[in-house]
Each structure stands twice: as structure tokens, then as C-alpha cells.
Amino acid sequence: MHTPTHIADKAVEYPKAQDVDGVVSVKGGSTIGLGKAISTRTGLPHLCIPTT
């Protein structure tokens, strides 16, 4: 399953508004996809912990 663009667009707003150092994704599929989208769009490092 992919992460819908409108969800990724909304999710990117939070790290831009806060003093965020990186993105952590835990689980699989859509969660990791969203983490990658946030990381790519913000330039933040991404730690991915797949569990499935």
C-alpha cells in the first residue's frame, strides 16, 4: 500500500513547524512509506524499524 499524497503533504507540516531532528518509523508498509515521504520532503534523517 502506498501513502496518499494528501496525507504526506499534511504530515510534512509538523516537522517543519517543530524543532525535529529526524523521523522514526516503526512497523511496516504505509508507516514506513510515510516516514520516507516526510524524510525526503524535509531532508531529515530517517530511522526505519520494520516489524512485519
From TrEMBL:
<protein>
    <recommendedName>
        <fullName>Alcohol dehydrogenase iron-type/glycerol dehydrogenase GldA domain-containing protein</fullName>
    </recommendedName>
</protein>
